[in-house]
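Hello again,

I reread your note about wanting to compare the complex against the isolated chains. To keep things tidy I'm splitting this into two emails, and this first one only covers the full assembly. Below are the input lines as submitted, including protein chains and any nucleic acid or small-molecule components. They are followed by the predicted structure of everything together. The single-chain runs will come separately.
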Amino acid sequence: MVETLADTVRVYLLLVRMWSRAAWAYRTSFVLLTVATAVVTGLDIVAILLIFAHTPRLADFTLPEVMFLYGTSSTAFYLADSILGTVDRLGGHVKAGTFDVMLLRPARALVQVAADQFTPRRLGKVAQAVTVLVVSLSLLDVPWTPSRALLVPLMVAAGAVIYGAIWVSGAAFQFVATDASEALNAFTFGGNFLTQYPLVIYGREWLWALTWIVPLAFVNWQPALYVLGRPDPLGLPLAFRFVSPAVALALAVVAALAWRAGVRHYRSTGS
Amino acid sequence: MRVYVEVALRGFRRHATYRSAAVAGAFTNTMFGFIRAYVLIALWQARPQLGGYDVVDAVTFAFLTQTLIAPVAVFGAPLELGERVRTGDVAMDLQRPADFQGWWLAADLGRALFALGFRGVVPLAAGALAFRLDLPTEPHVWLAFAVSTLLAVVVSFALRYLVALSAFWLLDDRGVHAIAGIAAMFFSGLLLPLVAFPGWLGAFARALPWAAIIQVPADVFLGEHTGAGLAGALGFQAAWAVILLALGRLVTAAAAGKVVVHGG
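Full-complex prediction:
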């Protein structure tokens, strides 16, 4: 059977629709969870606002600039979270034996794990992040050249792919360590939290590590330096501001290979 | 009394079984400790002495609160009780010849002890290696901190117990759990120390039960309270513990009257 990308997307959307209807069965919980997710994602920005209630600048960055970092990172993060955030439950599926069931069904296992227990309320988080991004764009005092304006949607898309790749790689790791799902949070939720602030606050060593080891600097930091018209504290060449899509692609390839290796390594839990 | 000690021991052992999960959790708590420490350093560099903390206090706060996250279960999984209400297994729990609330409290204390001893020490130790921290030097401060942490776990349990009992009416406590989690994160001081909350918001946040979970034990650790102030801080925690546990008992009685056991 030749499966096209369109088939994969169709199966994914089918599963998403099914899970959305399931979520609607517990209505009070659904409504409360929708409100809760919208508010909880808003708390990070409240913390930023409280910080700026005490100081006009944080590590020389203004509030609109930090809001821009928050908006770009969080929009990318919650897009990836909405689409495939549940892959971090892979370890649970392996332990419960439900992953075996997924392998038997005529659809890609990754698509099934990604769509598992999908709920439309996750889109509320994306909306919240986009709102902050739009507000920051209206407050920023930069000359909007075409290259600057184009870089904004491009960095969000690349950022979403980077987060998605981290999620899938972390899920693949759970084929080896089924209990390790919480360690993945350090890179996903931790990565999102970290990139909401100007990376200079973490010092040169961390900045170097975030560029070359866990390349979260390409989610929003490097392109944002260009958009905000700021020099790179590490003094990297100008080309680095534009390579996020290439970094995203490379990470996606690594994630795909890791996932395949994981599925091939998988031996079920027996019994 | 012995039965509760046994239940607590089982709670401890049950969580001790999942060692790799504890290691993964400790790793994540530690990484967040570093991120939060740097954010607070940036803030305290802009505003030294903000809220009566110096920058060393702020960094200590970042790592210490990451240590407390697991024991007080701010982000933790909901009490299994909620799930048991949904599945109906709770009918069995209500039959036990032991106090219902006491049973769950004992199990949670066992869990918290494991979380503090095996998972919680990691972020603080890592922070102490990387930064200069404000660690208590006097034994009585450590003792007060131990009491304060115990009270924090009890207050947190009492809140999560109420959340779990909501499943008797809603059939699914996940929504309430999510809302309660947000309130806990914001008002406990985990997101930003409550000392950095401006004006009336700070005063309001410090009167709520969530302050008893993170901010108060952290202040006790940092030696912000002495003498009568220390007694007042522990009294504040104890008062919330008593109020919320009593509320839990009232709700338990109401809920037990609602249980319908379907035979078959």
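For quick reference: The interface with chain A takes residues 18, 20-21, 23-25, 27-28, 31-32, 34-35, 38-39, 41-43, 45-47, 50, 170-176, 178-179, 181-182, 185-186, 191-192, 196-198 of chain B (CB under 8 Å).

B.
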